[in-house]
Amino acid sequence: MIIIPKNIVEKTAVVILAAGKGTRLGCTDIPKVMKLLAGKPIVSYVVETLTDMGFTNEHICLVVGFKKEKVTEYFKDRVSYAHQEEQKGTAHAAYTGMKELPKHIDTILVIQGDDSAFYSPETINRFIQEHCDSHAKLSLLSIDVDNPDQLGRIIRHENGDIEVIEKEYITEEQKKIKEISTGTFCFNREWFEHMYPTMPQLRKLGEYALPTALAMARDQGVKWQVIKIENGHEWFGINTPEQLEQAEQMKKGK
């Protein structure tokens, strides 16, 4: 069992984004993350992993919104909660969760509740430790996937620069790249909470998005980094019935 070192776990907390409705999955009476995957809610897998690693209920915060009672009825006091009253984007959800965490927490792991069911404790532990050891303000977890067609890309330039480019803007040459963002971040809490009120909204959506934090870190000249998962099967986004079925087969080891 992988246990986070005491000096890190005491100062680290996890915000899990679990407020989405899941329209493409046909969720009408439950939140997307409560859709069953191999008999258990999608989000329950990462909660169990974090609990096994030594995170307590006050250090695991689920940001809830749509049909939030379905989440709270299932997890009860195994986690803490923050209510995102309006769906204003992933950065807004992360900020909402951060505000509910104990004041002594200085490192925040932000995880999407719908794509983290396959994360191993080893990967989470490595990601947090590398973030803390580097003294970065922001760390992003990336991964190579076989079929990145509907995803943005991580572009690594020869001079060492790194860009995260949304799928709408990638070139034909960049489409060959398989490294993508998982949407999982580690943040220095003080930096994020100071930065967030100045974050611009996405022009077309009117939302506050986590990738914007990376652009702001770059503009501010603060340290940030991209850390790649070694096991390419640990991240899997579940957005459609077809992807849910594929995840079912993965959980069954087929």
From TrEMBL:
Q: Which Pfam families match?
A: NTP_transferase
Q: Which organism is it from?
A: Candidatus Magasanikbacteria bacterium CG10_big_fil_rev_8_21_14_0_10_38_6
Q: Name one GO molecular function term.
A: UDP-N-acetylglucosamine diphosphorylase activity
InterPro entries linked: GlmU-like, NTP_transferase_dom, Nucleotide-diphossugar_trans
Q: Which UniProt keywords apply?
A: Acyltransferase, Nucleotidyltransferase, Transferase
Q: Which reaction does it catalyse?
A: N-acetyl-alpha-D-glucosamine 1-phosphate + UTP + H(+) = UDP-N-acetyl-alpha-D-glucosamine + diphosphate; alpha-D-glucosamine 1-phosphate + acetyl-CoA = N-acetyl-alpha-D-glucosamine 1-phosphate + CoA + H(+)
Q: Which residues form the signal peptide?
A: none
Q: Where is the Nucleotidyl transferase domain?
A: 14-213
The name this protein carries in UniProt is Nucleotidyl transferase domain-containing protein
Role according to the record? Catalyzes the last two sequential reactions in the de novo biosynthetic pathway for UDP-N-acetylglucosamine (UDP-GlcNAc). The C-terminal domain catalyzes the transfer of acetyl group from acetyl coenzyme A to glucosamine-1-phosphate (GlcN-1-P) to produce N-acetylglucosamine-1-phosphate (GlcNAc-1-P), which is converted into UDP-GlcNAc by the transfer of uridine 5-monophosphate (from uridine 5-triphosphate), a reaction catalyzed by the N-terminal domain.
